[in-house]
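are you around this afternoon, could really use another pair of eyes. what follows is a protein written twice so to speak, once as letters and once as structure tokens for the fold. i want to understand how the tokens follow from the sequence so walk me through it. anything you notice is useful, everything is just below.
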Amino acid sequence: MTETLAPRPTAAATRAPARALPGVVLAGTAAAALLLGGAWLSAAGVTVVSPLVLALLAGAVAGSALGSSRRAGARRFTDRTAPGVAWVARHVLRAGVVLLGLQLSLPDVLDLGWRGIGVVLVTVATTFAATLALGRVLRVPRATSLLVATGFSVCGAAAVSAMTGVLERTPVTRNGGAPPRSGLRDDVAAALALVTLYGTAAVFVLPWLAERLGLDDHQAGLWLGASVQEVAQVVAAAGTVSTAALATATVAKLARVVLLAPLVAGTSAVLARRAAAAASDARAQAGARAGGGHRRRTLPVPGFVLGFLAAVMVRSLGVVPDPALDVAAHVTTALFVAAMFALGLGVDVPRLARTGRRPLLLGAASAVVVTATSLVAVLVLTP
């Protein structure tokens, strides 16, 4: 009598969850501490600092301290936590993007009317394209330009996080070769720092300008919602104008977030096509024959983007109760904070500081573009 046995898991597969656990615990503990700190800042009236940015900064400080330490214990700690940190930076980040869709309702966006939606569409498209073009002029690395363009045109840190998932999947080249993963983390850090810097400035400057320009509450709210980067920054800026402006600004901001999916999906498709063409050219130059090797097929659109769209549809149908949506919103923030801390641990702060001038100029130019474009669109479409 013979017995068929299921194949035993390999030693590597058995050890994988155990190897990831220290890093996951580290990121989770840091996220909990940062969320508590963010709640304390909010209670103190500091509403312009995103917890995602705080998480990235904390991770960068911790990572730099551990990386510069010559102690054997610090190196062992880094080696032990590295697998779990990498898992959080990749998979937890994408889960956060999916859950972000539950915060968006298409009927709410449609309440803006065609004029308001037109303002948002023109602003997002113009800012994204112009920032990429300016990045080439300023010779900013393409990954940095792409992240800055996404963050300034759509929704700040959340948009940067979503585009980070695309770049991890299909990285763009810097100087003819694949960029190192640490380089991508530096790009993310630069983009988030710029979103925070110029978004915070907009909180104080744009409401003052709206008053000087004589904009009514609807126009001011639409302008702020279409131009300011972070949701918290939009709330802080529009709240100083009026309650009516805050309501309009919030809906306009949601309309920008809805555009995150097509923007990320389109970018992913373009990058995947370019990568496939480059791989095809490389095989041709090497004299490879069809069928001579294994080709990995991937979806033109990342799975987490499809999950984001599915979550938007579920929210729009109104089948999710409000208490569940509140819980999902808190979970989404926690996932993003953990992922940003994990990304921050790999940031090379000295190198980031040495290469910060050109990205700083790009951020300033992008801030001018998004502010001016949205203002002109508001004045033209909502007379």
